[in-house]
Design brief:
Elements (H helix, E strand, L loop, with lengths): L4 H12 L3 E5 L4 H12 L5 E4 L9 H11 L8 E4 L2 E4 L1 H9 L3 H8 L5
Parallel strand pairs: 1-2
Antiparallel strand pairs: 1-3, 3-4
Keywords: Cytoplasm, Redox-active center
Protein name: Glutaredoxin
Family: Belongs to the glutaredoxin family. CC-type subfamily.
Length: 113
């Protein structure tokens, strides 16, 4: 599926102008876990609820996120830190456990301490 350039530009602008962006679905329990972890670290991510936000709904966004994942799985939540795709819930939790999440959040400007 070919993705419209305006969709790609919209996503690129969003992820490049915010320290942390989470593409989520309100009905997804793992999305709630990811957001809770970020909030518990005093991070205020930009959250896009794909099932509620008309600007970011549709197959173009879902196709783009699927391509970014590159592993054949639909990455919801899709988490971007410092303009780069971190991954889904597994990547978020593993980077938190292995100690790479906090430095990455600091480098992106999402944490002050």
């Amino acid at each position: 599926m070919e993705i419209a350039n305006d969709t790609q530009e919209k996503i690129h602008r969003l992820i490049s102008s915010n320290a942390v962006v989470v593409f989520s679905m309100n009905s997804c329990c793992m999305c709630h876990v990811a957001k809770h972890l970020l909030f518990s670290l005093a991070v205020s991510p930009t959250i896009v609820e794909l099932d509620q936000d008309e600007k970011f709904s549709g197959l173009d966004i879902q196709s783009l996120l699927f391509q970014l994942a590159g592993d054949g799985q639909f990455p919801i939540p899709a988490i971007f830190v410092g303009g780069k795709f971190l991954g889904s819930i597994e990547a978020l939790i593993s980077s938190h456990i292995n100690g790479t999440l906090i430095p990455r959040l600091r480098e992106a400007g999402a944490l002050w301490l």
